[in-house]
Each structure stands twice: as C-alpha cells, then as structure tokens.
C-alpha cells in the first residue's frame, strides 16, 4: 500500500485523480461563480507549490513571493489593457485608465505589450531573470536564513510602494476593467470556464515540474543545501547556484499564477502583492506542509476557502484564527497536515525519506 | 539653506526614531538570532500604554514621565511571556520563530482593535514639548529633540548595562559563545529571558515616545517594523554600534533623497542601497567574527 | 533496495505531457465568444415574487479600511430599518445580505460577484476606496446589476451600473478652491497621499490655479500610511504658502498635523484645507493639533435642518450617544433612500427600469434635497466648508448657494479643458 | 617516496587584532596520517578553516603547484581538499546512499542533476563497504550512531576523490572499538592520500600518528614523530603537562 503511494503507479493515480476532480467533478458540481472562485484559489495554490519548493525543500523562506506574482500579473494586465484600447479605439490608443490619469501618450515600455507573444515571453522570462539576478546577488554573498527572509519581505514592500507611485501602472488602484483575454470576451461564461481549465492545467503542469525537481538528484542536493549548506560547499558545489534554481522556479510559478490570476479576477493592484499578501502565501504552505508536494496546494486552498467563508461572518474572529494558525501550526506541527499522513506512514515502519521540514 | 539644515536635522531625527524602534530588535536578534515580528506590536503596546496612562493621570506631562517606565515594563512583560511560552521552544528554528511571532503580532493587533477600537486614539503632547525651537534658522519641533535625546539615553543605558553590570557581561558572553558561556556556569536560558525582557521593554519605550509624533492605532507598529529590520540587517546582527550608524545613515539618506525626489521613491532607494551594501558587507556594518560556522 | 533507485523520470514526463494535453483539449473544446461577438447577457436571478427583496451591503469589516467603512455600514442598516418600519419598498421588506470587502480590491470584486450571482440581490450598497470601486465596476457591468457608491471621489467616471451619491470634484474640490480664493489665498502648497484621488485632485487644482492666478509653491506625496512628515512639513514651512491643500488619507493625517503644530504652524498663519478629514478622524489627530483648520464636505453633523436632526437622533439612538455622523455615512444613508424612491417611481426592481426612472428622483436628505442626474448617475449636492472647533465637531463657515449640479468630467469649466477625457 | 600533497607557508589569521594563527608553515605528505595537536585556542581549527577557504589569511597554500589562497570554498574543495567538522555534518534527512551520491557528484552537469538516479555509482558502493555502512544504504543519516556519522562524513570525502583530507576531531565521542576501527580506516585511506587529523586524544595520537605538529598560541611549537614531539620539553610544558585539565574542559564543551 505504502509502496503503491510512492511508486510509479501512485504518481499516475494521483495525477489522474487530481485531473478527474479538477476537470470533471468541479465544473459539474460548482456554479459559474464558485468555479471562478476556485480558479482564483488555484492561482494561490500554484504560488504555494513554488514556496513549498524554495522554503520546504530549499530552506529559503521567501517572504516576498508577491513580487513575482505581481510581476506576472502586471505584465499580463499591461497586455490586456493595450488589447482593450486597441480593440475599442484602434491601434496606438491609450488605455482608459491612462486617460483618466492625464497620460496622453503610451509610455514606451508599454508599447511591446501590444503583442501577445511578447507578453507571454516576458511573463516567463522577466520575473525568472529578476529572481536569478537577485538570487545570485544574495546567495553568492551567503546571505541566508533570517537575513534573506527580511530582505525578501522588504523587497515586497518596496515593490508595492514603487507601483503605487507609478500612475502609468495604475498607481494605488492598480489595473482593472479588462474585456478580452487574447481576443476572447471575458464576460462570456464559457470563456470564464476556459480560464478555470487553464488554471487547473497550469497547476498540474507545475506539480509535475516540482515532482521531477524533487525526485531528481537536484532535489536531493537541494535538501542537502537546506540541512547543511557548508557541508555541500566543502564537497565542491557552489551552493548559491543550487539555491538560485529553486528560487527561480518558485518565482516562475508565482509569475505564471499572477498572469492567469488577472483575467480570472479582473484586477491586479499593489494590495495583492505587498508585505501582507506575501506572508499570507506562506500561511497556506505552512498549514498544508512545506516539505511535501501536495501539502502546500491543500493548505493554500483551505486557507483561501476559510477566509472567503469565515471573514464575512466573523471578521474579527478570522484575524484571530489566522494568527493562531500561524502560531499553533508552525510551533506544534511544523510539517503541516502532510506530516500527519507521514507520521502514520512512519508508524508502519516505512523508510524515512526527506519529508521532514527544516 | 534653511531647508538643508532642516533636512539634516530631519535625517538625524528620522534616524533616532528608527534607532529607538530597532534597538530592542537588534538586542534580541543578536542575542538569539530570533527575528521577532511581534516587535512592532510591542511598540504599539507602548503607544496604548501612553494612552491609558494619560486617561488615568490626566496631565500630559506627568503621564508621559510615568508612561516611559510603565511602557518599558509592559513591553518587557509581553516579551518575557512570548519568550517563555513560544520562542524558548523554537531556538533552533529561527525561520519558524519569525512566522510564529508574525502570528502573535496579528493576534495582538486584533486584540488592540477589539479593546481600543480601530480608529486612532489621541495622546496629547505635553505643553512643554509643543512647538519648536529655533536651530540655525529652522524651526525644530521639541518633540523630535525629545525623541533624539531619548534615543541617545537608551543607547547609553544599553551600552552601560552591557559593559558594566554582571548581567550585561553574561549577555555579552552568551552572544559571543553560547556553549562556552554555559560551561562557565552562565544559565543561557535566564540570560535569554533577560535579554528579551530588555529588548521588548525598549520597544515599549519607543511606543510611548512615538505617540508624540505619530498616530496611536492598532496598526502603528507595522509602520515602523520593516524599516527597523532593515536597520538591524544593515547594522550587523547584535551590534549596538552598527544599529546606531545604520539608523542614522538610513534616516539621513531617506531625508535627503526625499527632498530631491518623492517619499515613495526614497523608500525604494533605501532598499536598493541595502542590497548593494550587502554585496560589499554581507554580514552588515559590524560583525562579531568568530570561527564557528554561521 | 535497488528498486528505489529505478528511473522514474519517464512517468513524470508522461504525466507532464498528459496534463498539457488535457489543458490543450479543454482550451479548444471550451472556447466561447471572441472580441466583437455578442455575449449572451447574464440572466438576472433577482427574485421579487415574495414579501422580501434582498440587497447587498459590501463594506470592509476587516483590514485597514474597516475603521471608516463600518460607519458606512451602520448608516446603510439604519436607512433599511427605517424604510422597513415604514412599510418597505413596493410593499416588500428589505433584507440585507452583508459581505466583508476586507479592504482589498480583489475581495470587493469577488464578493460583489457573489452577491449578484449567488445571493441574487437587487442592488448593492458600499465600497469606499476608488480601488474598490474600480475593481467592482466590471463585475456590475458584466452582470448588469447596480452599485450605490457613497463616498466622495475623484470624478471622471460615469457607469450605467453605478449611482454615485458622494460628491464629485465640482461639488467638493472646486468649492473649496473658490472659498480659498475668496479669502485671499494667492499661493498653495499641495500635500497628498500617493494614490489616485490626491493626484487627480491636484491636477484639477493646478489647472484651477493656473486660471485664477494662484501660485502652486509645492506638491508632495507621501506613501499611503506613512507617518514620517518631517521633510514635507519642513518644505511646507519653508515655502511660505498662504494655505495648504491636504488630500492625505488615514493615519498619515495624525502624523502630519502633529508635525505641523509642532513646528509652530497655525491655522491663522497658514490654514490647511482638508478633504478627507471628517468627524471621526478629529479625535485621533487630537483637537488641539487641528483646531481652526478647514475641511470641505457636503455634510457635517452640525448641519441645521429638521431632516438632519431626525437623522442624528435616530443614529445616536441606534448606535450610542457618543457616535458621530459624517459625510460618507450621510451619503450612504441617502443612497438607500434614493434606491427605494427610484424603485417606487419605476414600480419595478429591474435594473433597466431603475436606470430609466432614475433621472429626477429626489430625497429630502440631512444635507438638503439631493436629486439624481439621469445622465451621469451622480446627485446634486450642497458644498460646505467646515471649520474644526474645540468640541471636535465641524461647523459650516461657508456654503454654496443651493445644491450644485454634478459634473464628473468638469465639462462646464473652461480651465479644465485639458483635463477632459473621452469616455 | 612521500611527496608533498599540500604546502602551507607562513599562514597568518587575524580576528579583530588578535592573531589566531601566527606564521604557520605546514607540509602534508601523501601516505601520512599527520596529527595536529595543541591546547584549545592554539589555532588548529582556524588553520583548517584557512586552508579550506572559510577564513581569510595571509601567506600561501599550494597544492600541485596551484595557489589556493583567495579561491572560493567550493573551488578549493574541487581541487581535492576535503574536510570534516568538529560535529559530524551529514545530511540528516537523506539516506546514506543519497549522502554519498551527492558527495560523488560535484562535477555533474545540470542536465544530469535534473534527472533521477538510475543506479548508485560504483565508487559509492565501494566506499559504503569501506566505511562499514553497506548494510545501511537506505537508512536516514540522521538516525545513524554518532560514530557512523563520522565515518559517513569521511566516506563523503572519499567518494569525492579528495586526496588531502583534513579531519577535525574524527573520534570525538567514540568508544574504544570504534576508535580503533577509525584509526585503521585512516591508515587505509592514507595509503594514497594525505590525511591531517586535528585531535585531543593523546592515546589515539600515539597509536596512529605518522607525524605530529604541535601548535601553541597560533604558532608551530614542535613537529616530528610521536616520540620526538613527546620528548620535547617545551611541548611538555605547555601542553602535555596540562593535558588532564584540558581534557576535562574539552569534555564540557563537546
């Protein structure tokens, strides 16, 4: 049974079951609105997979994932605003929010985003490249642990402040009022369902990539760096390179999640990417189990669901619950929900693997 | 010209505020490597201590003098409780401590909201601190001079305690080499608790002082926390000297940058400067060099 | 043991291909209408067959904006109770479905959609920040539903699906400038939080000043929530301006006014005109720091009218004698009555019927009579300059001659020609 | 017969004005088990830190004619210089096999790394046997006995093809039988490599040292065979005389 769960058949079964739930059961059982909500939550789950990799496996507490999420989201939003303006008023027209801000000409850095291909390339490359650059800057200098956490948090704060100050990026209000997604009407329920499928598909792909990274030699090396970075260095590896890969992968996942978040939710603003949203990404991962593959997904979905369901009835109680979850889960159950499952496995004398958190 | 003098003083003043907020943090971080995200809420607790004291005492001047030591005790007591109940059990998990204390901060914020209400409350500035004094042709608010003096006093007090009291020597011994200190018969557990008491108490004092210039609301602490962390990171962990230099440098940088640009860009500028700076000195301005593996 | 080292990359690769294939399949199978094609309009699910009609109240009950927005919610509840006690709308009792916007635009959008599509409410009352309104706007347009938005804002917007019951710029900013010009102000310093309302407001002020020969001697923006005003106040002090126009938001006002008072600036020598400080904020700033300063709104608790006396008494009876009433609360209170009056006029709850009937609908409100403008969905409002007094309340020192017609795009002002936008 | 595998010349390390290592010359020869002894604070571990690139120093360290000073830690490691730590540092959440596989793979290409392991490399299997852990390939390193962890760490250097091994107190906390096994292992290893051992245990040194260098206050006090060093009056004065006291203190800090 346990061998089945970790073996090849288990992988297949797991993915098949997930696909069945995401592509079959959910669209059948949920109303259009609920499905849209689930699509939004799936975006958080995609971010969570990346955090699981960087934090759970690599020991890098990335308190600034909002930056990469925001980059992906804003890049996509820029394209959608350009496309809207072009469709309504012809090529070269200024997006509506810029008119309101008194901007009469499209800023140069907006122009290439009229192209869908450029936009997609930018979403895949820019945030990742930024993460690589930043990663080298800090990891090569052996900035790590709490230093790294604080720096990444400050980065999220600085990024949000920077965006708020840019009227040509929508400022505090952010970018909203999108009508089309690569030519498809966003107010059509069928297209909204399509967005959900895209989000679900991306989640599965991201999980597959993360699984491969975990099972590869690189995955073992990453755990080694987490547990004893100096030891790895004295074995002849450049630990910074190893960390940068996981950090960049987490950034890429977050950017893709942000990019699909925009058409699903219809708005991106600095409020989604600052210090607090960034640390809230962590909560779901901690609850689900940072070290496991699927734990962060479950945790992120559970937190988003709880927030959506509880905050309206008990706004004050929800804040307490958030705080207490941080305290209780991390202090008492650092492995999250996933560690409960792992504990029962261990009870059946399974070989110990690398599931334990840092 | 007047503006320049004013801005230089502003830099000093902003630096002293940062320092007051960061001093306790630097102490606890250096001592235990613990990032206490609830530090901002301890500052907030200091603000509300000043508020409550003023409600009870009435006279703004007297209540300020009472609130300063009371704030120290309130902050210190909260720190002691936090250390005993949670942090003590998480010593080898610094990142987890960070997240746990973030949760504590969330809870404390909501407690403040439920007890005192969400809107800011008013702490009256005592008559003798109202208005400004003329300094080289610029009006300098007395409140800021008071905070500057308080920051200097706090640094002096901490330095004296660390240097010349037996408790301070124990703290320095544990910071220098925990294991060795323990073999010398120092209870590192007691020292940790003591350090946390002092560090959190300083947050309380900072809170009381900050009511003179800022708002007293449940989110007050948050506005100072990230900047305070940057001071600690740039200054080098556990080095009071580093915190002082970093706070004043960052304060001045921000004030000068802000004059020629916007406040928002100044914040971004500070971040960039710190990342670049860490390229040159990854461990901050001043570090304790030991042979142990970090 | 050797089994554990078997190569598993292949099935991961297969999984990868499979999930990519599924996604591609789903995409091609599930594509709906493209740009330019008609989309089947979302069917309204509002049910008015029973004795009750549901409306939504969407305010931030948590997060930074909850301070302000809970007061608006209280006013909405008060209006609904009064209308229900008087027999309801079209004979139906109003039932409120409350949601928390959590001070986050995305949550506002999400909850608005829930109220419309899941709860099937006939209209939604709420929103505060422009960010929240901008986030909700497409939701209301796509689902063809109605939002009543009760806060003064930066104008330049007129959606078919929103009724704006707070002031637009020509009912607040421009009267405030007129007042300052009348009192002989020749130079202004602009201080604001770094977001859309202050920036738009200051663009208008700059155009106005250029036209009227007022010098703008400085313009500074502080990060939202910033509490460090030493630099800005130093610059204000050094500028020697006749007055300051303040569009700061929230706790920043506390720090700003304290610093302002501390460097020795007073309302007599350099008055500050604020557009975001109402009765609730005065307490936190400290009356001693702000006494004598000016504010521009349409309503103060101290407005003298029978309607206001009734409103204030009812509010205090419901929520406690220590509570104060403010402009956004009054506008929210009005918005419920205006909706009810429109429904009575249209004899229908349907969105298109309300849109058709809205023009000219009026309500004798605490601030004076307000009338809906059917073209731009704003309402007429009386502008009032208030002065903050030692009791923490604001007293009217100047008021416009009768209600001002709403002009969100400032089409009636020649000097604003450059600010105009095409909608 | 012996050739110098590593040559250190005039090494100086300074911490805030305090010279922890003050002008040390040291040559490690292939085929030798070379013991570095000295009281606490003599600069033994600091010297190892300097050689392996962890600590800045002045002077020179060369291996096969290449200057190592100023190179990064992982570059020095790839030159074939391996070290262990005072407390055995292994990857506790990985299995013994995984630990060794990682140690064997510092030269792997990224493409290689991103794929799964088909089978264990031959040298990993061989070393597992050599260090006596062949029965525990699938055991998590964290649950190994204290001594086994130290062997595993040495094994990690072996699979990584290090030919200069710097071992920091490899028998700390071991029982008699384990010490003997470790000693024999060291001699096996030293057949083709240079092995330096930082150690306090005098009996262990006497039993297994081919050569001894005594450090005191950052400088070399004496060097030579066990007998030569033991007979040196200066060594007896500063070190061996106080050995009793020293061992008590060491036991407390361990």
From TrEMBL, chain A:
Gene Ontology terms: cellular component: plasma membrane
Superkingdom per UniProt: Bacteria
Any Pfam family the entry gives: BPD_transp_2
Transmembrane segments: 12-30, 36-55, 117-139, 146-165, 194-213, 234-261, 267-286, 293-311, 323-343
GO molecular function term, any single one: branched-chain amino acid transmembrane transporter activity
InterPro entries, alphabetized: ABC_transp_permease, ABC_transptr_urea_perm_UrtC, LivM-like
Keywords for this protein: Cell membrane, Membrane, Transmembrane, Transmembrane helix
Subcellular location: Cell membrane
Mode of membrane association: Multi-pass membrane protein
Primary localization: membrane
PANTHER family: HIGH-AFFINITY BRANCHED-CHAIN AMINO ACID TRANSPORT SYSTEM PERMEASE, SLR1201 PROTEIN
Record protein name field: Urea ABC transporter permease subunit UrtC
Species for this entry: Glycomyces luteolus
From TrEMBL, chain B:
Subcellular location: Cell membrane
Matching CDD domains: TM_PBP1_LivH_like (cd06582)
Superkingdom field: Bacteria
GO biological process: amino acid transport
Topological type in the membrane: Multi-pass membrane protein
Pfam families: BPD_transp_2 (PF02653)
InterPro entries listed in its UniProt record: ABC_transp_permease (IPR001851), ABC_UrtB_bac (IPR017779), BCAA_transport_permease (IPR052157)
Transmembrane segments: 6-27, 60-82, 145-162, 196-216, 228-250, 262-280
Keywords linked to the UniProt accession: Amino-acid transport, Cell membrane, Membrane, Transmembrane, Transmembrane helix, Transport
One Gene Ontology cellular component: plasma membrane
GO MF: transmembrane transporter activity
Family that this chain belongs to: Belongs to the binding-protein-dependent transport system permease family. LivHM subfamily.
Protein's name according to its UniProt entry: Urea ABC transporter permease subunit UrtB
UniProtKB/TrEMBL annotation, chain C:
Keyword Signal: yes
N-terminal signal peptide: 1-35
Keyword annotations from UniProtKB, A to Z: Signal
PROSITE patterns: PROKAR_LIPOPROTEIN
GO biological process terms on file: amino acid transport
Descriptive protein name: Urea ABC transporter substrate-binding protein
Lineage: Bacteria, Bacillati, Actinomycetota, Actinomycetes, Glycomycetales
Gene it is expressed from: urtA
TrEMBL record, chain D:
Matches recorded under Gene3D superfamilies: P-loop containing nucleotide triphosphate hydrolases
Keywords, ordered alphabetically: ATP-binding, Nucleotide-binding, Transport
Domain named ABC transporter: residues: 6-242
GO CC term, one of those recorded: plasma membrane
PROSITE patterns assigned: ABC_TRANSPORTER_2
Signal peptide: none
Pfam families in alphabetical order: ABC_tran, BCA_ABC_TP_C
Organism: Glycomyces luteolus
Protein's name according to its UniProt entry: Urea ABC transporter ATP-binding protein UrtD
GO molecular function, one term: ATP hydrolysis activity
Gene name tied to this protein: urtD
